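Blinded run. Sample ID left blank on purpose so nobody reads anything into the name before looking at the predicted structure. Input follows.
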Amino acid sequence: MRKKVTVVGAGNVGANVALRIADQELADVVLVDVVEGVPQGKGLDILESGPVQGYDVQITGANDYAPTANSDIVVITAGFPRKPGMTRDDLLIANYEIVKAATEQAVKYSPNCILILVTNPLDAMCWTAQKISGFPKHRVFGMAGVLDTARYRTFIAQELNVSVESITAMVLGGHGDTMVPLVRLTNVSGIPLTELLPQDKIDALVQRTRDGGAEIVKYLKTGSAYYAPSAATVEMVASILKDKKKVLPCACLLEGEYGANGLYVGVPAKLGAGGVEKIYEIALTADEKAMLAKSTAAVQELVDVLEKKMAS
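Blinded prediction complete.
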């Protein structure tokens, strides 16, 4: 029997997640959105690409969650996108309500699913979904680090004029302006980045990575990135459905690791059939610890706001 993935939100990110899953024949897809006709139309359009692209999967569009029953994975992309001048934090309350409703419906029909969050502000939305679902932490996590690391690798490859495939890197921390690209562990086929570029160039690449989402928002003006975010999400989906056990940076619930407790923070995690099967705790330098603590504090601020809202 084929696997089943539900994608909540049929906007640019969600539709591209559905398309990439179909293209790789990973699973049947149910595309859910509140706007009548949009998931049905986009779902049918992706389905009709099958004869040309050579994939055989079912794509169903729906405005309710009944067709999502017994999904293996539910990817939540629904939410308001960032507009120019808007921080991820501005999205907090608006997207909290959307993610809360989506989580409630998803877990009602698929109580054994794995939840992958993509909606911003990412770390706080993961926290919301875990609280609402009551799922164990290995079944609720978020896509951010894969995207941030892909951007970092892209910029390094451009700077050095080498293949992106030769670059090994890891970006930790919250998905926002305080993310922590680990320069010390960044290499090009084993050659440390610090031996290939001067510090000022490295600093500029790190800053561009932190501003990666905002840079695209500035160009698009009416929305945010979707090709790279969907690719990053589907790399996680594939690692789970194929039990590949890839080690990828994901927003995971920490319980003491990296000095954080009860918060979702981007860390290296092994993704397999069970979801997050292991969190890797890297020995960090004092500077790296300080940067990660700053990033974690930024996540804590958002969670504090949500805790007050849930208590009211």
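Unblinding after everyone has recorded impressions. The chain has a mean pLDDT of 96.
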